[in-house]
Protein 1
Amino acid sequence: MKKLLLGLGLAAVCLTAHADNCDHTRNSLDAIHCSNIIYQKADKELNTVYKQLTKKLSVANKKTLRSGQLRWIKQRDQACTMNSVDMGEVIDSACLLDQTTSRTNWLNDRLRECTTVGCMASKLDD
């Protein structure tokens, strides 16, 4: 019994390790898994930059940034979601990644501005 459990455990580790080799995906399931990993990293980076930026803002500017961020999330979700007759709502993961990367770059630009010349409230509401 112990050998069987050990064998199953090793097999699971090997399958997981292979699925995480995103340079050489074996099938569409691996590709989806890898896309998800890449998107999660991009989303984590966006959240990190957002938090760094909010630390530099006044209370009023934080509210402005937050409302702009909520509008961006709604716009991103609308742009990256399609309706399919066969499957219902379909999310375009490449679109999510592009939108998230673009927004992270925008947030980084605002962070650089705050650090170098000061936070410009007029640029936070986008």
Protein 2
Amino acid sequence: MTNSSDKIHQQLLQLATQAQKNAHAPYSNFKVGAAILDENNQQHASCNVENAAYPLGQCAEAGAISAMISSGNTQIKQILIVSPNDNFCPPCGGCRQKIAEFANDQTQVHLAKSNGEVKSVHFKDLLPLAFGFDKNEST
């Protein structure tokens, strides 16, 4: 990684970790934070918000996507998801499909443990046969 990408990863991790602190997870106590870097290099973050009327809650990734869209941006360059424990927390199936709507096959997905360890993958490896993803395939 270059110093520039290290700095971006650290910024996304810090943003996601801050959002994670605000998670509303009284039922699972599984607080997740997510941060996105969009096509204009703006950053957006959110946390999971549970609801007693399960499954009406919202995942952190979906909230970060909503924040990105509400700011007028439409493409995820990178997304980082921070776990509340010592395991990586990949996006659930629904969030993988939501990410696919605004990603391409080279979009970087960073998974962070609570200790700050980060594992990075290309989105195409996380959801190789995403519904409707062919619109984003590289040529």
Protein 3
Amino acid sequence: MWGIIATWAMAYDGVLKGSKLLIDKHSAVDAIEETIKSVEDEPNFRSVGYGGLPNEKGIVELDSGFMDGDKLSVGAVGGITGFKNPISIAIKLSEESYNNFLVGSGAEEYARLNGFEVKNMSTERSLEIWREKKKRFSEENIRAYDGHDTVGVITLDTYGKMCAGTSTSGLFMKRKGRVGDSPLCGGGFYVDSEVGGAAATGVGEDIMKGCLSYEVVRLMSEGLNPQEAAERAVAEFSEKLKRKANLSRDISVVCMNNKGEWGIGTNIDEFSFVVAKEDMKPVIFLTKKIDGKIKYMEAKDKWIEEYMKKEIK
């Protein structure tokens, strides 16, 4: 049995590539790296990798995290600039005995010493959007955009190994040096091959407060199925935030257990994700809330077409 689940419809091509590797009995590590790299390399997806939207200074700062569910080894980078495919750097860091989470210039020095590809991750379109926003910022006092299009992926290979990974350029117009939940183990991602894995997307400042990916895996370890675990974790924490802070912003989580069963939790009206399994080709799903419960359905061709138009706009 193999399986893969990823946040957002933008991950479809990556999931297709990753699933082919899993079919050919490659490892969960290979599959997750290929899946996330596919999203990082596509400039039309402006919340991840190449063409990611810049911070307030006009610089694309990238965050990425990776976890091996067999070893519980973790690697992560935060605020890294000028290097292609931060997920690959995070995977390499997970192989180190110490210094597994590097940020800023330290992460960049490590990437340079280990031969990772140097690349200007800005595109003319991403800078054009930044300039437009900067002008409006000065005129209308607009703050950072609360986007939440992190790519988060869980993979399960035919040998029973599981991995979790994330990659993002973070909030558009964020402050220089801002890091959200995506590279934080337990917040943006968590996996244990004996149980399962989870990855989050949304407003990192909220997600990191609840260690949500770890919480979903913990609930699965107590016997909840993936859908129950994800739905319960997101709903309960969203209610806690409303009670304590009078505000709960966008939070979504995808998860999969070591049997290939999957689930999602979200507090937004519409959330898209992609799933592929041994008995199911890659499918884009959409969520809807019906009578207070999360339901999901396969995305129609028209919705996918409109989604892509929006992405490349």
Protein 4
Amino acid sequence: MKLKIIELEKDKIRITLEGEGHTMVNALVDEILADPEVDVAKYVIKYQFSDPELFVTMKPGSAKDPITVIREAAQHMVDRCDALLACLKN
């Protein structure tokens, strides 16, 4: 997957996720929103075959930056998938 940073500031980020669709990005947004320091997390796919654009903003005074939050959310998704695979092996 390729990411393209469109906008990056201390408390917000806007990126595109090349080649991804609703399934992965929707799950990522849900994980991001689970972080109490996140103010807004949403995505848009402007056209049927365009890459999704992810937008994340942090609450005022947040100690975390949006890149850290996205990384943590992605790692939570990986951990959950690993746990599911482990259960299916038994």
